[in-house]
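Progress against Task 2.4 (sequence-to-structure conversion) is shown through the following example record, which the project officer requested during the mid-term review.
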Amino acid sequence: MPRYDFALILSRPLYEDELDPLFDRTHGAVTVSIISEPEHAERPGNASCAWSGPTLAAAIMEMVEHVETSAPGVHVLQVEADPLLTIRDIAERVGRSLDSVRHAITGSRGVAGFPSSEMSSAGHRLWRWSKIATWYGIDDPQLIEAKPTVQAINGWLALRDVVPDVAPAPEEITSALSLVIPHVA
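Structure tokens generated for the chain above:
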């Protein structure tokens, strides 16, 4: 089964005492934002996930259940499956050295026009994988699967929050996506 990397945006960060149940369920395959004080619970949290599944939709839905079961009161609000990468992550994914990627970024060697970073965090820049893959000419089937999957699951998450009685079961979403994705991707 393929391994998928994606992020979940949570209704709040997790408390430290909620980490053990999540770790037990996921065997450490998720990294979450944590808080120790209740006054910080008003901001969104996030969970970076690396999970295997027959499809991206199945992997996401399974992780949604793990997170929400492990931390009562936490709800997944949104999913993102086009990861942000560090220079080291880029080098790993494209099979190049760190120096080669640095030269590509600065334009000092090779083709100019390396994608701009999406954000900077603690002095480190982060790039969107889809833009990097395009620039290097990498055809990543997971990115092709990601766009319609994320769009459908984010719609389901929104529907579930607004009118939970009408939202279909997660298995119905996963099943419907498995029928459509081969034709979209």
